[in-house]
Amino acid sequence: MNTYKPNTEIENVELLITMKKRILHSYKWHEDVIIPFAKELEISTDELEEILMKRLDMSSLEAINPRFESSKLRCIKERIHADLRLCWLCDVMNIITKEKSNIIKNKIAYEILKENKPYHKAIEEGRKNLLEEIMK
User: Fold this and answer.
1) Is-contact 23 29, C-beta < 8 A?
2) How far apart are CA 32 and CA 72, in angstroms?
3) Domain ranges of the chain
4) Of 101, 97, 70, which is closest to residue 84 (Cα–Cα)?
5) Model-level pTM greater than 0.70?
6) What is the CATH number of domain 69-136?
7) CA neighbours within 13 Å on the CB side: how many for 30?
């Protein structure tokens, strides 16, 4: 006698929600993604989790944290580029070269990500170095 009974649609949905919650509630996910993005969007962590569960499938959820880690450097460098107005100094006015701009951004990003220097301190020092560079 076979007592196997396939899951109902509701049971499948509940299982999927449980599995997604396990991913979202993992320590790294919560610390790296949920808390910072909830603060940035000025919503609760529960609201952000609900958005992610609704918008992302299981494979996307599982792949986000490695992608998040690998995008940190690029995002920091884009922020530095904007905060130092390199878009004007390099891209528009050509006062410094793209190579020199990249050297400055890489140095600041390294200090922030590898040496744990606070962003505002690193950008202050970077601004001084930039000024020295354009005053040559």
Assistant:
1) yes
2) 10
3) 8-56, 69-136
4) 101
5) no
6) 1.10.3070.10
7) 9
**Structure-block tokens of residue 16:** 């999927």
Give the torsion sign (CA, 54, 60, 62, 63). negative
Q: CA-CA distance, 101 to 105, in Å (whole number)?
A: 6
| Cα distance between residue 23 and residue 13, in whole Å | 16
Joined together, the tokens standing for residue 55 give 């918008």
Contact 36, 29 (CB under 8 A): no
> What pLDDT, in 10s, does the model give residues 62-85?
777 666 777 888 889 999 999 999
The DSSP symbol for 97 reads: -
Residue type, 5: K
Q: What is the DSSP letter of 105?
A: H
DSSP, collapsed to helix, strand or coil, labels residue 91 as helix
Place of tokens 């007592």: 3
47-67 tens-digit pLDDT: 988 898 888 887 787 777 666
CA distance 118 to 106: 15
